[in-house]
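Consider one such protein record:
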Amino acid sequence: MLRFEALSPVWNGVLFAVAAVIVWKTGVRLTRIAKAISDQLGGKQAIVGMVLLGGVVSLPEMATSVAASLIGNAPLAINTLLGGTAVTMAILAVVDAVVGHEPLSVDVAHPIVLLQGSLVILLLSIAAAGMIAGDVPLPNTGIGAWTSAILLLYLSFVTFAKRYERDTPWVPTRVPETQRTDGEHAPPSACAPMTRLILRAAAVGAVTVIAGYVLAGTGDALSTQTGLGGGLVGLILGGIATSLPELSTMLEAVRQSQYEMAFADAFGTNLLSTALLFFADAAYSDQPLLNEAGRFSIFAVLLGIAVTTVYLAGLIVRRNRAIFGMGIDSAAVLILYVGGLIVLFHLR
């Protein structure tokens, strides 16, 4: 095992950058695999985006947070997971500005995406409540009751979402032509056997986990060597670096006009990142992990709730107006995120 703290800040920075590039490349590859699986499943973009994209691209967060918990760096573990929720929404806004031909929220037809966003707010609210009220360990374990409840809610929602996507309790008045749900004109990669596609996804996921471990080790070392602390490093360096797969997957999804998959990827990633608190909590030996959270972490969670709420409003209003090439909701998300970073810098 590498002892990253024995390396110089320069070498840790180099390793951090290399791991981040690997994460980016694996994210691009994963998007193509997920698109092929989505086509074979009849174009179920939302559930594939949430379970496959949201799941596998969250592996760096899991590896980083669990590794940080094992070495006793609770702020790094918490803020890598929860700080990344706001980062993911900001990334979606950037993708909207760079790639989108119109506001992305106009082109989402299935209500399951709204349901995913609503649950993100619910899980983040539960996490914030656990931080404020204090967590208590379950009997004969060191795992907190609040993080256990978050995981159970997430698993229940995944089961419910598989059934819900088959139904259409309501649809928007104008369903955009870019949203294909019949799986027609699938790319050649969609013809690959499902088993082979799943094995490819597993291989990409394994590489992502290794890169996530390197990000955790170098991030922990840099938090001490730079004097920034685990909170800010976890939020900015850890949150942004481990969110690189989300950037690549959302970018590819939007380029392929898979707008539902882009939102489902973003919301699904944040759902799983919050649920992963359970595993980071299990790896932390001192006390329930949420008890180590301070004002910094609580504000980071509230920032994630705020930007998610803005996008939910955009998905409901569906206003086809752009500002600087992006939707009004995306512009508001970026303003909130930048303002939140300024506040978090003073709270570090």
In short: The first strand starts at residue 322 and ends at 323. The radius of gyration is 19 Å. Residues 178-190 have pLDDT under 50 and may be disordered.
